[in-house]
Inverse folding.
C-alpha cells in the first residue's frame, strides 16, 4: 500500500531517495536538524496541508480538481469556534463540522457532476464563496478560547514527543490509500479518471462517484480544521488562506497525474515528507523565504523531469539486444 | 603568550564556563527577528534597525521569515527559531492568537519575547513595542486629514482586513474622535473598505469609493500599501485637489504626490528605529537591566528614553508627518 | 427508455435560439443581467464616469485573462502569470528609474522579458512533456523568487518612475483612458489573430482535437510554445501597465493574479478543457469581475458578503455559460443528446 510491497514504484522510489538526500542536506545546513524530537515536532506543519492533499489527490485521480479545500477548512474552523463557544462537547461538534464540510465539498461535486460545470471554474468560485462564508460566520475578531478537548488533536504530543496530529495524518493516509488501492470506490475513481466515457458505459455512476469524492475532500478539510484549531488556537475567516498552492504542489510532486487516472496516495505522502524535510532544514538554517521559494520551484521542475530523463535513458538502453522492456518510469 | 599566561587564561575560561549560569550575562545574546513578511521595505528597515542595535550591544542577530504573510509559515518560522535556542525573539504577529502557543513555549524556556508593529496575545509575550498607541495613531491620521481638508467633509477608511486588530482599532478610535472631539467634528464617516494590503486592490477600491460617494473628501488608509495606491488613483482619475488620500505610508512611496501638490500630508514613524528599539529592549530585559512594570523608564541607545506602559506595552510614540517640505529629510 | 429521436425537429423558440440569433454568448448575457440588476439597485451605477471606472479597473486583467485564454485553448494553463507580470514589471521599473532618459521604447523590455519567461514555460510543457500545472507552479515560484532576490528588500516608488510612464496611465483619448484603449486594441488584435491567421486557427485545432491535429501533421509542440510565448509577452505588457497604473512597484506585484485570470477566463466562457472560448469572452469576464466589485461597493455591501457574492457569481457565470452553450447546441441540432454531459 505504501510502497512497502514487493513491487517497486518508480516515482515513489525516487521520492524516497530525494527525502534521504534532503535529510542529509538539512543535517549539513543546520546542527539542530537531526534529532528525533525536532523532526517529529516539525511534522505538525504539514498535517493540515497533508490532509487537504489527501482529499485533493482523490479528486485529481478522478480527473477533476478542487481548489476550494482551504476555504472549506476555514469554514470548519469557525464552525468549531461557534460550537466551542456554545459549549458543545467535541464528540458532537467534530462529526457535525466534518459533515458540514463534507456537504460543502459535495456541493462542489454536485455542481461539477450534475450541472456539467468544469471543476476548475466551479472551485475558483466556491473558493471565494466559502472563504466569504467563513468570514461571515467567523466575524471580525476571530476566536481563540477553545476548550481543551477541542485542542487535543492539534496540540498534544504523546509522551511529549509524538504529535497526535501526525498520527492522525498517518492513519488517514493509510485509510485513504487503502480506499484508493483496494476498494471498488478507488478502482472506479481511477477508471473514471482514465476514461470517463468508458467507465460510464461500463455502468459506473460517474455523477455519484464524483460527488462522493468531492465530499471526501471536504470531510478531510473538516478534519484539517480540527487539527488547525488545536495547533494554532485561532479560528478566523482567513485561516489557511493561500495554502492551496502548496497543497497542489504536494499532490503533483507526489506523482498524481493532473489529467487523472494515475498516481498513488503513497506518492503524495512521500512528497509531503520531502517538502517538509526541505522546508524544515532551510528554516532551521534561517534561509530566506524567497530562496526557499526558488528551491521549491526548481525542485518541482527538476523532479518531474526525472521521468522524462528516465524515459530517454530507457529508450536508449532498449535499442540494444535486451528485448522489450516497460517504458513507463511511473 | 607565555605558558604562564596561557594557563591563567585557560583557568579563567574554565572558571567562567563552570560558573557561567551563575554570572549575569551582559552581552552575546542570540536575538532572532521575524516580520510579517520579508521583502517589504518597511519590515526590512526594522530588520536593519534590529541588526544595528544587536551589533551595538554585542549580540548576534538573525532576521528571517516567509516571503508572504502566512500565519502557518510564521508559526513555523517561530518554531524553527525556538529549536535554535535563542535568547530573545522579536516578531510582528500576523495573527495574534495563532502565534500564542509557540510564544508561550518560548517564554517557558526562558526566551524573552518582544512583539513590535503588531502585537500577539498579551500573555504570550514579554513586551510589545507599539509604534504609536492606537489612539495616537488615529489622531495622527486625522491630523493629516485636517491638513488635507481643513474645512472637513466626507471621509472613508481603508484597512487591510476586518481581522487586522490594529487597523480595526485605528478605525474605532477615529470614529470616536470624529464623534466627540470638536477639532475633528468637521468630518463625517461614510464608508470603510478593505484592500488586503494589495496595491491593485487598494487602487480599485479608491476608484470605487470615489464613484460611490461623489462628495468624498478624504480617503484615510491605515495600511502603508493602500495610502500611496489611493493617492495614485485620485490623481489618475482626475480627482486631485478634490479628493485626498492620507494615512500611513513610507515617505519614498508618497514623495511623488507630495511634490506635485496633489497630496498634502502622510504619516508614519521610523521603522528602522522601531526595530532598533525592539532589539534593544529585548537585550535590556535579557541583561536584567529592564523591569517590565508600568512607569519604569529606560534609555535605549540611539532611540532615546522611553517608559514602560500598561501590560508590557512600550509606546515608541514618535509619529512623523510628511509634507512637501519634510519628506526628503526622512531618509527612507 | 424511449429511443433517442433521430429525426431533426424544427427549431422551436428557445433560449438557445434567441442567444444564437443575437450572437450573444453566456458572458455577455450575464453582463447585461448584472448591469441591469446593479442599475436598479444603485442609481450611480450606469453613469458614464462609473462605467469608465469599471472598464479602467478591468483593463489590465482583461489582457491577462486573454493571455490565459490563449493558453487554455490548447488544453494547457498558466499559473505563473502573476509572477511573470511581477518580474517583468520590477526589472523594467528598476531599469527605468536608473535610466531616466530612455523613452517609451522601454516598453519593449517587458515584452522581450515576458517572451523569454513564457518561452521557458512553453519549452518545458511542449518538449519536456511535463504537465502545464506542474511547470507553471514551478515557474510561479522561480520567477517570484527571482524578483525577490533581485529587489533585495526594496521597492520602486512612483517618484523614481519616468514621467512618461506615469503619464501613460493617466492620459485619456476622447475621454477614454489610454489603458482601456490599449487593452481593447490588444484583445482585438489577439482575437483577429486567432480567427484569421492559420497559426491562430491551429491553436484552436490543437486544443479541440489534439489527435486529429497530429494526424493532419500539426506540430502541436510548436503551437504550444507559441501560445506560452504570446502569454508571456502579454503578461509582460500587463506587468508594465500595472506598474504605470499603481505607481509603486513591489516584489509582490500581481501576486494571486493567476486565480483572477482563471476566474475571468472561465466566466468568459473559455473552456478549461481546451478548444472553445474566445479571448473577447475572457476580457469580458474581467469586466464582469470589476462590475461586481464596483456594484457591491456602490451598494454598500459589507466586505464579507462581497467575497461570498463574488465567488457565487463566478459559479453562476460558469453555469450560465454552459447553459447557453448547451441550449445553442440543442437548438442547432434540433434533437436531444441521449445523455446530458456531466455524467
Amino acid at each position: 500500500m505504501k510502497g512497502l510491497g514487493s513491487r517497486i514504484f518508480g516515482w515513489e522510489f525516487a521520492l524516497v531517495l530525494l527525502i534521504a538526500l534532503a535529510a542529509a542536506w538539512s543535517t549539513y545546513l543546520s546542527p539542530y536538524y537531526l534529532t528525533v524530537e525536532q523532526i517529529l515536532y516539525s511534522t505538525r506543519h504539514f498535517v493540515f496541508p497533508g490532509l487537504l492533499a489527501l482529499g485533493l489527490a482523490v479528486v485529481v485521480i478522478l480527473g477533476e480538481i478542487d481548489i476550494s479545500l482551504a476555504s472549506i477548512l476555514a469554514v470548519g474552523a469557525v464552525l468549531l469556534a461557534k460550537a466551542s463557544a456554545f459549549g458543545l462537547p467535541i464528540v458532537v461538534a467534530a462529526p457535525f463540522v466534518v459533515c458540514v464540510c463534507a456537504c460543502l465539498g459535495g456541493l462542489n461535486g454536485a455542481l461539477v457532476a450534475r450541472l456539467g460545470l468544469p471543476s476548475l471554474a466551479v472551485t475558483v468560485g466556491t473558493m471565494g464563496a466559502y472563504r466569504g462564508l467563513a468570514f461571515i460566520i467567523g466575524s471580525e475578531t476571530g476566536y481563540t478560547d477553545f476548550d481543551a478537548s477541542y485542542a487535543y488533536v492539534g496540540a498534544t504530543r504523546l509522551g511529549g514527543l509524538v504529535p497526535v496530529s501526525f498520527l492522525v495524518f498517518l492513519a488517514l493516509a493509510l485509510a485513504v490509500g487503502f480506499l484508493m488501492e483496494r476498494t471498488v470506490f478507488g478502482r472506479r475513481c481511477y477508471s473514471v479518471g482514465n476514461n470517463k466515457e468508458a467507465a460510464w458505459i461500463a455502468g459506473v455512476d460517474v455523477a455519484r462517484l464524483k460527488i462522493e469524492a468531492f465530499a471526501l475532500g471536504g470531510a478531510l478539510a473538516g478534519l484539517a480544521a480540527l487539527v488547525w484549531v488545536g495547533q494554532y488556537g485561532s479560528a478566523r475567516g482567513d485561516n489557511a488562506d493561500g495554502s492551496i498552492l502548496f497543497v497542489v504542489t504536494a499532490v503533483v510532486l507526489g506523482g498524481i497525474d493532473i489529467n487523472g487516472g494515475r498516481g498513488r496516495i503513497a506518492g503524495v505522502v512521500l512528497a509531503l515528507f520531502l517538502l517538509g524535510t526541505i522546508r524544515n532544514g532551510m528554516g532551521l538554517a534561517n534561509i530566506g523565504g524567497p530562496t526557499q521559494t526558488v528551491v521549491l520551484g526548481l525542485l518541482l521542475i527538476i523532479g518531474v523531469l526525472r521521468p522524462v530523463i528516465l524515459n530517454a535513458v530507457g529508450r536508449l538502453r532498449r535499442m540494444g539486444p535486451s528485448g522489450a522492456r516497460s517504458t513507463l518510469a511511473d | 603568550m607565555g605558558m604562564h599566561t596561557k594557563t591563567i587564561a585557560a583557568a579563567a575560561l574554565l572558571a567562567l564556563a563552570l560558573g557561567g549560569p551563575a554570572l549575569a550575562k551582559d552581552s552575546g545574546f542570540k536575538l532572532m527577528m521575524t516580520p510579517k513578511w520579508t521583502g517589504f521595505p518597511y519590515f526590512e528597515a526594522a530588520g536593519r534597525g534590529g541588526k544595528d542595535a544587536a551589533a551595538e550591544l554585542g549580540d548576534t542577530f538573525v532576521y528571517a521569515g516567509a516571503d508572504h504573510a502566512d500565519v502557518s509559515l510564521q508559526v513555523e518560522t517561530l518554531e524553527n527559531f525556538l529549536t535554535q535556542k535563542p535568547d530573545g525573539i522579536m516578531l510582528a504577529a500576523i495573527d495574534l492568537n495563532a502565534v500564542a502557543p509557540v510564544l508561550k513555549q518560548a517564554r517557558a524556556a526562558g526566551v524573552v519575547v518582544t512583539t513590535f508593529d503588531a502585537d500577539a496575545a498579551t500573555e504570550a509575550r514579554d513586551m510589545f513595542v507599539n509604534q504609536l498607541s492606537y489612539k495616537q495613531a488615529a489622531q495622527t491620521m486625522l491630523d493629516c486629514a485636517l491638513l488635507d481638508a481643513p474645512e472637513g467633509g466626507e471621509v472613508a477608511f481603508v484597512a487591510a482586513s476586518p481581522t487586522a486588530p490594529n487597523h480595526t482599532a485605528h478605525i474605532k478610535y477615529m470614529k470616536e474622535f470624529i464623534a466627540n472631539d470638536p477639532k475633528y467634528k468637521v468630518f463625517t464617516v461614510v464608508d470603510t473598505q478593505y484592500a488586503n494590503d494589495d496595491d491593485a486592490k487598494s487602487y480599485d477600491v479608491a476608484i470605487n469609493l470615489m464613484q460611490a460617494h461623489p462628495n468624498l473628501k478624504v480617503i484615510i488608509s491605515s495600511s502603508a500599501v493602500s495610502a500611496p495606491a489611493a493617492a495614485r488613483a485620485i490623481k489618475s482619475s482626475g480627482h486631485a485637489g478634490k479628493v485626498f488620500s492620507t494615512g500611513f505610508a513610507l515617505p519614498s512611496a508618497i514623495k511623488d504626490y507630495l511634490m506635485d501638490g496633489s497630496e498634502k500630508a502622510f504619516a508614519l514613524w521610523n521603522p528602522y528605529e522601531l526595530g532598533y528599539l525592539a532589539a534593544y529592549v529585548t537585550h535590556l530585559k535579557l541583561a536584567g537591566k529592564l523591569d517590565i512594570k508600568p512607569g519604569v523608564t529606560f534609555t535605549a541607545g540611539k532611540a532615546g528614553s522611553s517608559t514602560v506602559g500598561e501590560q508590557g506595552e512600550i509606546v515608541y510614540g514618535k509619529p512623523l508627518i510628511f509634507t512637501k517640505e519634510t519628506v526628503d529629510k526622512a531618509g527612507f | 427508455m424511449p429511443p433517442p429521436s433521430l429525426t431533426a425537429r424544427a427549431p422551436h423558440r428557445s433560449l438557445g435560439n434567441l442567444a444564437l440569433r443575437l450572437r450573444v454568448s453566456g458572458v455577455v448575457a450575464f453582463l447585461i443581467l448584472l448591469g441591469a440588476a446593479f442599475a436598479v439597485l444603485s442609481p450611480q451605477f450606469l453613469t458614464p464616469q462609473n462605467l469608465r471606472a469599471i472598464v479602467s479597473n478591468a483593463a489590465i486583467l482583461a489582457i491577462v485573462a486573454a493571455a490565459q485564454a490563449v493558453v487554455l485553448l490548447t488544453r494547457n494553463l498558466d499559473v505563473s502569470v502573476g509572477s511573470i507580470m511581477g518580474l517583468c514589471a520590477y526589472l523594467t521599473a528598476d531599469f527605468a528609474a536608473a535610466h531616466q532618459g530612455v523613452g517609451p521604447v522601454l516598453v519593449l523590455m517587458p515584452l522581450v522579458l515576458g517572451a523569454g519567461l513564457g518561452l521557458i514555460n512553453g519549452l518545458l510543457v511542449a518538449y519536456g512533456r511535463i504537465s502545464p500545472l506542474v511547470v507553471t507552479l514551478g515557474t510561479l515560484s522561480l520567477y517570484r523568487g527571482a524578483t525577490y532576490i533581485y529587489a533585495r528588500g526594496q521597492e520602486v516608488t512612483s517618484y523614481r518612475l519616468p514621467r512618461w510612464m506615469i503619464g501613460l496611465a493617466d492620459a485619456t483619448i476622447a475621454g477614454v483612458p489610454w489603458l482601456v484603449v490599449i487593452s481593447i486594441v490588444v484583445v482585438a488584435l489577439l482575437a483577429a489573430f486567432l480567427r484569421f491567421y492559420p497559426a491562430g486557427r491551429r491553436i484552436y485545432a490543437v486544443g479541440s482535437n489534439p489527435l486529429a491535429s497530429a494526424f493532419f501533421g500539426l506540430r502541436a509542440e510548436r503551437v504550444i510554445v507559441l501560445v506560452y510565448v504570446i502569454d508571456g509577452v502579454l503578461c509582460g505588457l500587463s506587468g508594465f501597465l500595472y506598474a504605470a497604473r499603481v505607481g509603486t512597484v513591489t516584489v509582490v506585484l500581481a501576486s494571486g493574479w493567476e486565480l483572477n485570470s482563471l476566474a475571468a477566463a472561465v466566466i468568459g466562457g473559455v473552456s478549461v478543457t481546451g478548444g472553445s472560448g474566445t479571448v473577447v469572452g475572457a476580457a469580458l469576464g474581467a469586466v464582469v469581475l470589476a462590475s461586481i466589485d464596483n456594484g457591491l461597493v456602490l451598494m454598500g455591501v459589507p466586505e464579507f458578503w462581497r467575497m461570498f457574492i463574488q465567488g457565487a457569481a463566478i459559479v453562476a457565470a460558469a453555469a450560465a455559460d454552459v447553459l447557453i452553450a448547451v441550449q445553442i447546441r440543442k437548438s442547432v441540432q434540433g434533437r436531444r443528446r441521449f445523455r446530458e454531459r456531466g455524467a
